[in-house]
Amino acid sequence: MRWRPCGADAALLDCDSLEQMRAAHATVAAARPAGVVDLVPGARSLLVVGGVAAVKALLDDADLTHPPAGEPREVTLDVRYDGEDLALVASDAGMSEDAVVELHTEAVYTVAFTGFAPGFGYLTGLPAQLRQPRLESPRTRVPAGSVGLAGEFTGVYPRESPGGWRLLGHTSATLFDPHADPPALFAPGDRVRFRAVR
């Protein structure tokens, strides 16, 4: 791991892996060191705003091979598996569309970090058989609620936007509401399950 200063009272921790970042984030979030104003996790980094010295001291003595034990919040989303790329995902995986849906719904996912758009969570735990690249040419319009996958992640588009993930289906769940408290449905560390509905 490597620390890089970011402004007067923040630092970016470059991690060796997504798992190490998740462990660092969970460790700091659980300990809540004095002075920490915000934590912003990324795929392989953690931005610490405020209390940097306390966080460095905490992580120097921490086991970052896995997140600390705790009871994560769990969210279940109902999904209609009728996505534009379901047949493509099935073909590239060498299995039926029903098998893709079964694999996607049997897994339990973890929100590793959020980004791209408000409320968008990058969910880890995608079965290896479903890991596929982004589309060669991104779409200019992906409807809100679209459930997709790309690489090692699966996720849900919280609002209409461009995007290049392979689309499996759609949920009617609201992932981001600026008037709600909290506004985002997903937070790092949450567990997510998908449930197939007609």
TrEMBL record:
Keywords: ATP-binding, Hydrolase, Nucleotide-binding. Transmembrane segments: none annotated. SMART domains: AHS1. GO terms for molecular function: ATP binding; hydrolase activity. Gene3D superfamilies: 3.30.1360.40, Cyclophilin-like (2.40.100.10). Residues 1-186 form the Carboxyltransferase domain. It comes from the Bacteria. It holds the Pfam family CT_C_D. This is Sensor histidine kinase inhibitor, KipI family.
